[in-house]
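Would you mind giving me a polypeptide sequence along with per-residue structure tokens?
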Amino acid sequence: MISGTLMAFAGTAVIVVVTPGLDTAFVLRTAAAEGRGNGIRATIGIGLGCLCWGAAAAFGLGALLAASPATFTLLKVAGAAYLLWLGIRLLARPRSAFEKMGAGAVMADPMAGALRRGFTTNILNPKVGVFYLTLLPQFVPAGVDAGWYSFGLAALHVCLATIWFTILATVTASARQLLRAPRAVSTLDRITGGVFVAFGLHLALG
């Protein structure tokens, strides 16, 4: 039974991971503008943010958040504001937006800028917690420790996402010279900025 539920969850997680969304746009943009290393660091930040929400959902904090409208709304507004800020900066000032946001941090700590942005985009999105809270219990078999098993499922999802986004970052970085052409940069920045704004509005209004 356990192996069956693991396989079922893994199949579901793969579908969720490869479906394009905010994290996909973020990794692609970071790898194209800042190289494979920062693309992978952004991936690690995304994974850490998701793992925090997975732990919260597995051990009860996610349920508490879902039961507290004020806390949920506060996190949602903060996350929406952050995404809108990133998106509007990219739309208004392509290329310079990301580089200026991460330049000082990257000089002080090579991992700080991209990793922090990846972590922040997920940790400020309470819908990630709600996603885990609704998905994980469906794959917990009888007779196991629900908390630790759920956390293991969340960790499996993060591992699959990390593998996928690492592949995306590597492939994107290999075409970096083409993507750094002024027209390509402008187009990529505006697409990514539009995705961020769309997700920010969806988070704020959803």
Observations:
- The chain has eleven helices and no strands.
- Confidence is low (pLDDT under 50) at residues 100-109.
- Residues 2-10+35-205 form one domain.
